[in-house]
Amino acid sequence: NGNPQNPYCNGIDGVLEAYYQSLKSVRLYGPTHFSPVINHVARYASAITDGSQYFILLIISDGVITDMAQTKESIVNAASLPMSIIIVGVGPAEFDEMIELDGDEERISSQGRYAERDIVQFVPFRDYIDRRGNHILSMARLAKEVLAEIPDQFLSYMRTRGIKPGPLPPPYTPCPLPAIHPLHTRRVSRI
């Protein structure tokens, strides 16, 4: 969101607001280093061990990763934390290395260590541009794909830690207004 000391966004609206604000100040250019931002979010996630928070890092990149070894190491380390990483590739760059980070086909490894679980989802934006002009449908497809792996990644973290959902809150029941409540007896005056 542009604030390294408080990098939280509140819901989708917060993510979109942070994105639009970044368009005003961020210039996309190389080199493309993912490991510093992954490590930054991992520090926050490492402080949470009770399952009360789960972090989702969204990286939007227009370039080829230039710190691949460090990024793999960061992902392997982060795979044991309550976090997921979504990478959206924009522009014409070749994103083969980002596909490798996704870990769908093969669990990512670094220096002989394997990631505990798959925490990365890579989506190339260009695959969701509707050439026929149906912008709403293409954005809905993009959103679906971007978020597709999050539920399983979240559940895999909770299961491996033995964290079970807390009790459900009681169901909401609206308080019925008594028949003599002022709203029931209010008269409409004519002018």
From TrEMBL:
Protein name: Copine C-terminal domain-containing protein
Ranges of residues in domain Copine C-terminal: 1-165
GO BP annotations listed: cellular response to calcium ion
Superkingdom per UniProt: Eukaryota
Source organism: Nothobranchius kuhntae
One Gene Ontology MF term: calcium-dependent phospholipid binding
Pfam families on file: Copine
InterPro entries in the record: Copine, Copine_C, vWFA_dom_sf
Cellular component aspect of the GO annotation: plasma membrane
